[in-house]
Amino acid sequence: MSRATVVYIIMLLACAAGVWLILRAGNRLKPPPDLNGTWEISRIQKLGSDEPPALGNEMTIEQSGRFVHIRFASGLKLDLKASVRDSSEANGSVTIDLSNGQWNLRVRPDASELALLIDRPTRAAFTARPRENDKRSLTPNPSRSAARHAS
Amino acid sequence: MPLEQLIPILLVQIGLVLGLSRLMGMLFARLQQPQVMGEMIAGIMLGPSLFGLFAISQKVFPAESVPYLGMLSQIGVIFFLFLIGLELDPKLIRNRGHAAIVISHASIVTPFLLGAGLTLYLYTRLFNDTPAMRFSSVALFMGAAMSITAFPVLARILTERNLHKTKIGAISITCAAVDDATAWCMLAFVVGVARAKGPHSALLTAALSAAYVLTMFFVVRPFLRRLQVVHDRQGRLSQNVVAIILLLVLASAWTTERIGIHALFGAFLMGAIMPKGSRFIRSLSEKLEDYTVVFLLPIFFAYTGLKTQIGLLNNAELWLDTGLIILVACIGKFGGSALAARACGLGWRESSAIGILMNTRGLMELVILNVGRELGVITPAVFAMMVIMALVTTALTTPVLHWVAPRRLFDPERAPAKPEDRAKGFSVLIPVGDPRSGGPLLRLADMIAGPAPDRRIYALNLRRPVDRDAYRAGLDDQISEPEPPLQPLLAHADQYHIPVEAISFVSRDIAADVARVSADRKVDLVLMGFHKPVFTRTILGGAVHRVLTATPADVSIFVDRGFHGAQRVLVPYLGGRHDRLALQIASRLARHAGARVTVLHVVPASRGRGKPLDAQSAVSRVFEDPTQPVPVEFKVVEHDSPVDAVLTEATRYDLIVVGVSEEWGLESHLFGLRPERIAEGSATSLLIVRAHSAASVPPSTDSAGPRDKLAEAPAS
User: Fold this and answer.
1) Whole-angstrom Cα distance, residue B61 to residue B13?
2) Measured distance CA(B109)–CA(B576) in Å, rounded
3) Of B33, B280, B412, B627, which sits most exposed with the smallest number of CB within 10 A?
4) Interchain contact A86–B (C-beta under 8 A)
């Protein structure tokens, strides 16, 4: 076996080992739940003395991981950063805090809708359902959940 | 939206896309960047990042029309990938030596591992929890996206810098070819993994992929060889053969799409298995290339631009992540390639040059990113970040290469001339664009330069970069024939035993390169033919104007009206700087070619004859050299229009040598519509001369400037 062949085999093995290690480490990671899509807003509730902000009847979320952009039908646009809190390991549900200094929102996705709580600037709560033609599933990715629990 | 409304919108969109992409391509070429950079930027400009900020964008690119544009762009990419496969010649990889193989493997493995490794950090920041964005899919995709090299862009940079015949060029083009082939195989694998719904589905995809590849090699390839035989027998590429090949490309792309490894892989493999090194491939490539590259690819760039939202990167953290992606991409590709090259025994400078070249990602990165976006493997923000990475790494290539591998070290054609290569006697540079002008220009140059043994005549051919040449950059090293535009001139030189030094290289800026070569060789006179500019009516407009103003030497433009020799030469003379140069050139023609020179001094009829004595003494100083006097006729005519006086006189002469000046209606302008009556109205050949002004161009480092040598003409 020539030296070159040995070098290639080592390079190939190193690459395979590196990829295996990366995949093994990465499979334990969990990105934020996917909120992308257009959502119909319903049941806006006032929780404090102030009037809830005008949101309109729809919101569009563009999410790239922790970075979330929400456009409400009222014209309000928010750029927010998400942090995910595991509220209950047992059922896999999570709470996502979205904030940008001026706005604080708490989002709890479940199988059929999002429950949102606005903390700042005024307190209010509402729910949102996927628009009819916006096919999506809010259930957490089963394969990843399984991997997480296995690890 | 009904079809009758959609078609006009699509036509406007395509027109806008083509126009802007050509414009930006030309602009970037002027900035010494690959043209494709401009085309990619044009696409992004049309998207939400710039044009989308204005309300009119909704009318020009309504959401309903974008899918149609997307379909056209997909067809474009499919045929582009077929062309890439078509140009991938195994000869590039064979016999390139151990170094090329090691570097190419290292240039894939290192960025792949770093790209996949970077995903460990980015995954929880920039990706969402969706079935498509499983960590394995994302990591493999990021690795593949980081390890891509833009073979066509790299080939073009190599050709433009005349590096393709150097060791750096040969190694880089080989590595790019290997990277390309590997990257599309990797992409097929990643797509297979991302689309697989479970272990059974993955196994089925793998089995079908293997069957497909075997069919392509053992069934389709022999059939293509038979098509080549048909082509060779017919001596041309018939429309039936083209139709069969297009059908095969579509069938191959359809098959791989159905298997689950993406249509692009099918198109690429179809091109890769075509019989190589034949006229058949060249004809096919010529038929498809212009339509694909000029028409369909800009649509792909525009579609990519419409999907690129740079506005999503709206905080410092995201820009830091973008910077990190660029850094990792550069370290992986540049570092991997450069270190491997160094380990193979190449010097640091050569190794760095190879690393920089391999870091060029260009449009191939956009192709792979679009696949990732369609699969849902990357989020819109990551897509925007990676597009920026592709632009930055491509834009960096030329300036950094210029810095690391300067032309004086790596470009044999453009390297500054050694002192012994520079003319000691009178020298003439002939830039040849039109092959037909070569012979007459050489004859005239020979007459002006004279028989002195230390005189030099340089024939310069500057080739425009052509994509087709660029693709073949790695295969052209065995070609050493003279360039076709120089062939008539060199044949003439052989016939009349005129020593000529031929210089030929690829140029993006003809005027600047003529000026550079003339400065480098320290030529006394640039003698060029006349080519009507595209946008002006004037002989002295456009590129000729730029040569006239940028060249640090006297410049003459020859307007051939059936030139057979210079027996009778007319020099219109009013006493200006350029007129004096015309006198000096005419005196050379008189001494070396036995021309009878008549100097025509025109004085206004309204003012009477005045005092032509000053003019006559100036003429005498040039012609009456005590060692070698030549006869000259000094003629004074009264006329209110100097141009008419010359035109009246011109019919009896073989050649008019005239200096550029307002009085003769000859002034150089970049753009202009003023008729040059002396040129348009004369049936006699014309040599328009412009004396070099040291004030208008950087001073020459040589103490004996061109002006001095022309002034010394009588003694030569």
Assistant:
1) 7
2) 68
3) B627
4) no
Q: Which of B271, B275, B237 is nearest to B253 (CA)?
A: B271
Residue A33 with chain B: CB contacts under 8 Å: 128-129
Looking at residue B540, its pLDDT comes to 62
Tens digits of residue pLDDT in B607-633: 555 556 577 777 777 777 666 667 788
pTM: 0.73
What pLDDT does residue B86 have?
A: 84
Phi first, then psi: what are they for B548, rounded to 5°?
-60, -40
| Predicted confidence band of residue B165 (pLDDT cuts 50, 70, 90) | low
Please tell me the distance in Å from A18's CA to the nearest CA on chain B: 7
| B 114-153: CB under 8 A from A | 116-117, 119-120, 122-131, 133-136, 138-140, 143
CB contact under 8 A, B128 and A34: yes
Residues 6 or more apart from B596 whose CB is under 8 A from it?
Answer: B567, B568, B569, B590, B631, B633
Closest to B261 (Cα-Cα) out of B179, B192, B345, B158 = B192
Degrees to nearest 5, angle at CA B539 with B538 and B544: 115
Q: Beta strand A114-120 with A104-109: parallel, antiparallel or unpaired? A: antiparallel
Cα–Cα distance between B249 and B271 in angstroms, integer?
A: 8
Q: How many Å apart are CA B203 and CA B199, to the nearest integer?
A: 6
Which comes out higher in pLDDT, residue B603 or A129? A129
Q: Is the Cβ–Cβ distance between A76 and A69 less than 8 Å?
A: no
Interchain CB contact of B196 with A (< 8 Å)? no
| Burial degree of A121 (CB within 10 A; 0-12, 13-18, 19+) | exposed
CB contact under 8 A, A36 and B128: yes
* Residue recorded with tokens 């219109």: B572
* Total CB pairs under 8 A between chain A and B: 109
What mean pLDDT do residues B303-320 have? 89
Rounded to the nearest angstrom, the minimum Cα separation between B3 and chain A is 24
Is B109 in Cβ contact with A140 (below 8 Å)?
no
Min CA distance, A47 vs chain B (Å)?
31
Q: Is A134 on the interface with B (CB under 8 A)?
A: no
| A62 near B CB under 8 A | yes
| Cis amide linkage into residue A121, ω under 30° from 0 | yes
Confirm if A131 and A39 have CB atoms less than 8 A apart.
yes
Q: How confident is the model at residue B334 (pLDDT cuts 50, 70, 90)?
A: very high
- Would you mind telling me the total number of residues written for chain B in this entry? 716
> Which amino acid does the sequence have at A64?
S
CB A32 within 8 A of CB A6: no
Three-class secondary structure assignment of B127-193: CCECCCCCHHHHHHHHHHHHCCCCHHHHHHHHHHCCCCCCHHHHHHHHHHHHHHHHHHHHHHHHHHH
**Residue from B488, B536, B541 nearest B511 by CA:** B541
Q: Give whole-number Cα distances, B164 to A17, A70, A124, B413, in Å.
A: 36, 51, 67, 12
Whether the pLDDT of residue B676 is over 90: the answer is no
Among chain B residues, the shortest Cα distance to A36 is held by: B128
Structure tokens at B190: 């990643």
Task: Identify the burial level of B10 via C-beta atoms within 10 angstroms of its C-beta, where 0-12 means exposed, 13-18 middle and 19 or more buried.
Answer: middle
Phi-psi region of B276 (alpha: psi -120 to 50; beta: other; left: phi over 0): beta
Of the candidates B119, B131, B317, which has its C-beta nearest A26's C-beta? B119
- For B98, other C-beta atoms within 10 Å of its C-beta total 13
- Burial (CB < 10 A; 0-12, 13-18, 19+), residue B257, is middle
- Tokens 């002027």 locate to B30
How many CA atoms lie within 13 Å of B589's alpha carbon, on the beta-carbon side?
26
β-bridge mates for residue A61, sequence order: A37, A70
**Per-residue tokens: A74:** 């009222």
